[in-house]
Amino acid sequence: MKKIQISPSILSADFSQLGNEIKRLIDAGADMVHVDVMDGHFVPNLTIGPPVIKALKKNSSIPFDVHLMISPVHKYIEAFANAGADIITIHPEATEDLQNSINKIKELKKKVGISLNPETKIDVVKKFLNQIDLILIMSVNPGFGGQKFMPEVLKKIKDLVDIREKEGINFDIEIDGGINFENSKLAIEAGANILVSGTTIFKSNDGNIKKNIDLLRSI
Ligand code: DX5
Ligand code: ZN
Q: To test ligand 1's pocket by mutation, which of 7, 15, 33, 36 has the most ligand atoms within 8 angstroms of CB?
């Protein structure tokens, strides 16, 4: 059983205090920082880019789990790698040539993630599973924090666990969107080992980040 890791999404953090918010996450025992990059084109929202990530990474002792909701994505991969992304997760629909984009991320010595939207089938990425470090299962349609969890994606996680076992490969399974203290247990039981959470971590229990991270990690 893989260790359960928590990757808080700073999309729900106080954007006027991002540096301090990341320090709070580190002090609270977060395993990595989930950075949602949105371009207003792939998703109907716009967030931050490489310059902000570079500035934030300077003071972070934990990995940056960068979720690129941008298209076309290929030409920006290097900029995010140079800015300090440790994991670069892309959406298959956002690149003309997924193999080429995977190669590019590997060339830059970063971990490769592929993200599947709720309606995207595993078949779209099946042949790449033996080349990637993690698959990010969206449990909301990407673009905003605070949305309602879509339980139908749990079956995708179970199917991925079967594929991983059958093929003897070893990617992590990350789930992202609407994760709370109830459905986190369902996600872990289904086989997810990295939980992304924004709203639950930053807003529950009067914003007690450490308590919220510990609660999410416990099954
Ligand atoms: C949505 C993002 C998610 C989101 C998670 O497009 O990819 O990471 O910020 O936030 P919550 O936990 O509030 O759904
Ligand atoms: Zn995300």
A: 36
